Amino acid sequence: MLKALYLIRHAHPQPNTGLAYDRAPGPPLSEAGREEARATGLYLSQCNLERLFVSPLDRTQETARLIAEHTQAPIQIEETLAEHRSDESFESVKARVQDLLARVEGDSFTRVGFVTHGSPTKALLQTLSNGALDLSQFVFDNGNPAPTAGVWRAERTDDGWRLELVFTPAMARTG
Predict the structure, then answer these.
(1) Could you give the domains of the chain?
(2) Contact criterion met (CB below 8 Å) for 82 and 56
(3) How many CB atoms sit inside 10 A of residue 133's CB?
(4) CB-based contacts of 70: which residues, under 8 Å, 6+ apart?
(5) Are 60 and 13 in contact (CB under 8 A)?
């Protein structure tokens, strides 16, 4: 039974690449993003992750590889975690991440990470909280519910999922 799910937003991408942000391959990480991903990997190294499910875009795959250097968690590419496309509704994003969540919950994993983007993270937070989580206090760049390389932890309790933003690169810098 899934006991903990870590929702990890990709680290800071390289700006002004000319690559579409919402389509593969998308921009790679910036040097600052690689540092963020390494810091996130250090944080997650204590979480005993069994697998990292990762969006197919370059910035999420690179983030996951840098995290996996610290966690040793195997990486599995998941189309369902892709960026919210400009021609896609939020409800469609929500449906696809709910499908992945159901598949993962039906497996034997107890602790996994999803390396994804802001909109899929928001959809997962809404799903896990049954719409009860007030995200108005968690608004970062471009309206995302986590900063780049930020981590939300969802822990299963008897009453559902307890959700907490547990790591941001700023936390690593301030100790």
Answers:
(1) 4-174 (3.40.50.1240)
(2) yes
(3) 18
(4) 38, 41, 42, 44, 45
(5) no
Query: What span, in angstroms and rounded, lies between the C-alpha atoms of 146 and 134?
Result: 13
| Confidence at residue 174, expressed as pLDDT on a 0 to 100 scale | 66
User: How much is the pLDDT for 173?
Assistant: 72
β partners of residue 167: 151
Tell me how far apart the alpha carbons of residues 99 and 149 are, in angstroms, rounded to a whole number: 24
Q: What is the pLDDT of residues 140-156, one digit of tens each?
A: 999 999 999 999 999 99
Rounded CA separation 106/116 (Å): 20
Q: Which residues pair with 160 in a beta bridge?
A: 157
Q: Is 1 helix (H, G, I), strand (E, B) or coil?
A: coil
Q: Tell me the CA end-to-end span of the chain in Å, nearest whole number.
A: 33
Residues of the chain with pLDDT under 50: none
pLDDT at 103: 97
**Alpha carbon 68 to its chain's center:** 14
154: how many CB neighbours lie within 10 A of its CB? 23
